[in-house]
Amino acid sequence: MKGNGMDMIRRLSFDALVVGGGIAGLQAALDLGDQGFKVAVVEKDSSIGGKMIRLSKVFPTLDCSSCITTPKMAAAAHHENISIFTWCEILSLPKNSEGGFTAGIRQKPRYVDSVKCIGCRQCEYVCPVYVPDPEQGGFAARKAIYVPFSNAIPQIALLDMDNCMLCGKCQKVCPAEAVNYLQEPQDFEIEARAVILATGFEMTPVENKRQYGEGSLPNVITALQMERLLAPHGPYNRVLRPSDGMEPESIAYIQCAGSRDKSMGLSYCSRVCCMYAIKQAMLLSGALPFADIIVYYMDIRAFGKGYEQFFQTAMAMGIQFTKGKVALLSGAEGGKVIVRYESQEADGGVHKAEHDLVVLSLGLIPGWHPESSCSVSTGSDGFIRTIAPKMAPTLTDVKGVFVAGAASGPKDIVDTITEAGGAAMEASRYLFSLGGISRHESEVPGLEPARVQTEIR
């Protein structure tokens, strides 16, 4: 937008800013929105839902992950007090002169007009370009222009310009004339009196594990890739080996494949790896009842309510647990994977085993590094530091900034949702101490708030 011959930064005002649209960010936003606060949710991906919407089931109840996440996504998208900004990145998050915060945000180009797009997917159907789909673990293909997944919010297409051949077919077929190959990034600002950081986690890169093949072994996959194979709407609709499409008869899990490893700079336990491996092993036992499933572990850390019983149930189902540290993975004839490990059981010594498929239980690392944009401090592990982790685990060392979920350290979904509610409570108390609910309008004359504030229509 231009005014008086000069570029003007669009500016919007809210009571609270939630950075991250995963399960923690959505829960915090809903709790604040239900109290009447105006909330902005800024998400780096093209859809809200975070990691949880990509999972098959959750432990220890084995409930459907989408059945839990999708209603919260829809509730946030249609909440009158919540505005959602997807496909955005935080450029800066300093305190302003009034004691609040001014977030500099960049809307990355979708090359599709988010206001015009009606989500019909006609552009996707006619696109001739196929590329590996990371939403399906790279096991299936998607088009160069696409809606991320069937229950994505918002249902707005995204053009992958790196793989687009500029044939023009998507632009010609679009009934809303929404495709715009010349779209550019747009910067704007959000002013908020309180901030909740719910930036989540990423998995340790498999390429960093030289002893595990650095991602070059086709039948060595990550736990998130296995989640997609197990999902009812996964790439194959059943569990198949990636290299040749056969049903694996022997599946191994390698625990602490990144966590508790000082050589990778991750000396900490990622906390959830044991439980998600056990969950997947139990689901595999049902999907492939004749397959041998073995878990190589150093320690089983079943820390939560019902988790120990979950572990015991897995053993009763016939899943094998071998105490030993895997030192090396290598390829073998027929696509098999050779696992060399040092046993810590009674037999001891170095052993070798062959498996059709190997799953790496990768550890958790921070999903966002605030150093360049926010003054909140981090711990030695890179996660956001809390000043009272036992008494008030959502408080940071910056007044008015709160943290929820895996942004402050690895944790499971139950603790993440609980902590998100705690962060919303602390933010609510802080906002009421400043004078309760405020009603702000855009500070840019002539701005259409509905078109700028949210892509959800």
Quick gist of this model?
This protein has helices at about 25-35, 65-75, 120-125, 170-175, 225-230, 275-285, 305-315, 415-435, 450-455, and strands spanning about 1-5, 5, 10-20, 40, 55-60, 65, 80-85, 90, 100-105, 130, 140-145, 145, 160, 185-195, 200-205, 220, 250-255, 290-295, 320-330, 335-345, 350-355, 355-360, 365, 400-405. It is an alpha/beta fold.
Task: Write structural notes for this entry.
The structure is a single chain. With 457 residues, this protein is of the alpha/beta class. The protein has three domains: 210 residues, FAD/NAD(P)-binding domain (3-Layer(bba) Sandwich); 69 residues, Alpha-Beta Plaits (2-Layer Sandwich), CATH 3.30.70; 160 residues, FAD/NAD(P)-binding domain, CATH 3.50.50. The chain is built from nine helices and 24 strands. The strands form seven sheets. Strands 3, 4, 7, 8, 9, 14 and 24 form a seven-stranded mixed beta sheet that branches. Strands 16-22-17-18-19-20-21 form a seven-stranded mixed beta sheet. The longest helix has 21 residues. The N terminus and C terminus are likely disordered.
